[in-house]
């Protein structure tokens, strides 16, 4: 009797599965190999986990390697994020490897401690909106900020943890195009993103509603507006939030019906060319007083040529430009868009920056980079190319628990970050994850700041395109200036901005808690 229970029930179940496999016509493998064929699908389903934890080496995985994730996890937990026994990257045989060139001597006082600069927020070298005299122009406290990730794509707990972490780190959080929610109202200052669906600032018919926008930005600490033209993961493609995920809360925030598919069009309806775009930018800036910018991936260059031509010829213009690389993307996208549409960050940003530089417009525009820039070496290269700030997305997702399961599009994120499933979301503890966001942002700023010190400058925005080389294995290495055709002075703020940010970093930092008097730099000798 016991034997029949032990083996009879599993045998009956296997027989039932086998009978079904033989009868079904969807999978040839299962018809030919009933029961056993399921092992193939099981291995396929857990393939990412097998590769992630067992098979691949520390620098093989994509989009983020094990070493990169280890650095982020350790930084966010405020534990040792140093590595022993040297680099395990194949430096001498890797094409496109980034090398930062340190300087032997500098006018700056030397760093005195490994953790120097951890408490410094390290502001942007430019005042956002100052060139166009926006009423609410300001200098961002942090050159590292949290990129656009919408509630709906992320859980409410994830958005709240990011906001609380941003508040403690003194950085900005971009709302994403999904609207401004209660999860964004926990102390962190915001950039409100306006997408093609105008979620959170639209009327009942789906058209943009200026009055609603003004009400939203006045109800929260919104510091700037960002018009999203496209994003790195799926440029030129709209989005879809399935009706099953449109909860009453999401519907209220976005201004859409409950339980119905939510479509983000591929393009805006409020403007149809550069001329109308600039008119709309000036309208938003005049009505709100806020700096207004655009976010875009880089494809056809004619848009940027026309934008810079009209900005130079008229009194209209954007206050900031956020360039998203094709390697970016926190959500779901068709594979061909993720792999093959839009330029990767460095080449895309360099082309856009060159268009503004040739038009003589770079000093009056704040440049923001996005697309896997939450790693120190990538951030350094971005700052050298001319970024004034960098936005990070997937990296703070790691800080709040993401394990790169790559299930963002399935609503089954196992750590509660990219899902609306209540059972999965309950596992994300907001207070502890907020602390990890703060620690991660601080560690990234510290490492980039220390690279700036190594190159002999007082601020990451002063790292030049001559300070960074790209190696072609053992064969050849060229500077970013040579690689992207930069001219003398390109990639740097104006002389007055350089002087001011140097003063802020070398004079005022001495009296800042956690600044140079708390283990930053040795004071220079009297001469």
From TrEMBL:
The highest taxon in the source lineage is Bacteria
Q: Which organism is it from?
A: Rhodococcus sacchari
Q: What is this protein called?
A: FMN-binding glutamate synthase family protein
């Amino acid at each position: 009797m016991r034997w029949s229970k032990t083996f009879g029930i599993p045998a009956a179940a296997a027989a039932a599965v086998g009978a079904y496999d033989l009868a079904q016509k969807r999978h040839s493998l299962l018809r030919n190999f009933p029961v056993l064929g399921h092992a193939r699908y099981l291995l396929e389903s857990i393939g990412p986990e097998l590769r992630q934890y067992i098979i691949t080496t520390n620098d093989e995985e994509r989009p983020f390697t094990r070493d990169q994730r280890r650095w982020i996890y350790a930084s966010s937990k405020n534990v040792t994020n140093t590595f022993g026994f040297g680099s395990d990257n194949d430096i001498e045989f890797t094409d496109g490897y980034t090398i930062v060139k340190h300087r032997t001597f500098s006018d700056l006082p030397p760093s005195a401690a490994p953790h120097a600069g951890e408490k410094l927020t390290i502001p942007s070298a430019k005042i956002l909106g100052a060139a166009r005299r926006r009423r609410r122009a300001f200098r961002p406290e942090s050159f590292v900020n949290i990129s656009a990730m919408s509630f709906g794509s992320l859980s409410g707990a994830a958005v709240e943890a990011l906001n609380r972490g941003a508040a403690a780190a003194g950085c900005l959080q971009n709302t994403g195009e999904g609207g401004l929610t209660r999860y964004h109202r926990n102390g962190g200052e915001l950039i409100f993103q306006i997408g093609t669906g105008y979620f959170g600032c639209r009327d009942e018919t789906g058209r943009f509603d200026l009055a609603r926008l003004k009400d939203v930005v006045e109800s929260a600490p919104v510091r700037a507006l960002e018009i999203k033209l496209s994003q790195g993961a799926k440029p030129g493609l709209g989005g879809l939030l399935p009706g099953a995920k449109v909860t009453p809360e999401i519907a209220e925030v976005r201004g859409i019906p409950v339980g119905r598919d939510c479509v983000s069009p591929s393009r805006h309806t409020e403007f149809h060319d550069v001329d109308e775009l600039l008119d709309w930018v000036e309208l938003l800036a005049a009505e709100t007083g806020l700096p207004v910018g655009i976010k875009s991936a880089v494809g056809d260059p004619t848009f940027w040529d026309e934008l810079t031509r009209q900005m130079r010829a008229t009194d209209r213009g954007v206050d900031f430009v956020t360039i998203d690389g094709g390697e970016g993307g926190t959500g779901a996208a068709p594979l061909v868009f993720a792999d093959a549409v839009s330029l990767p960050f460095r080449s895309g940003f360099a082309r856009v920056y060159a268009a503004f530089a040739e038009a003589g417009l770079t000093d009056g525009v704040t440049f923001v980079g996005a697309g896997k820039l939450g790693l120190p070496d990538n951030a350094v290269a971005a700052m050298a190319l001319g970024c004034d700030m960098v936005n990070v997305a997937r990296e703070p997702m790691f800080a709040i628990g993401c394990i790169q399961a790559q299930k963002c599009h399935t609503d089954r994120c196992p750590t509660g970050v990219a899902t609306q499933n209540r059972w999965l979301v309950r596992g994300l503890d907001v207070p502890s994850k907020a602390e990890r966001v703060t620690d991660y942002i601080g560690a990234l700023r510290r490492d980039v700041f220390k690279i700036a010190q190594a190159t002999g400058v007082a601020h990451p925005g002063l790292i030049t395109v001559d300070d960074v080389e790209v190696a072609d294995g053992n064969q050849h290495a060229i500077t970013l200036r040579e690689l992207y055709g930069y001219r003398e002075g390109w990639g740097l703020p104006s002389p007055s901005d350089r002087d001011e940010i140097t003063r802020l970093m070398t004079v005022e930092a001495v009296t800042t808690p956690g600044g140079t008097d708390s283990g930053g730099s040795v004071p220079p000798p009297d001469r």
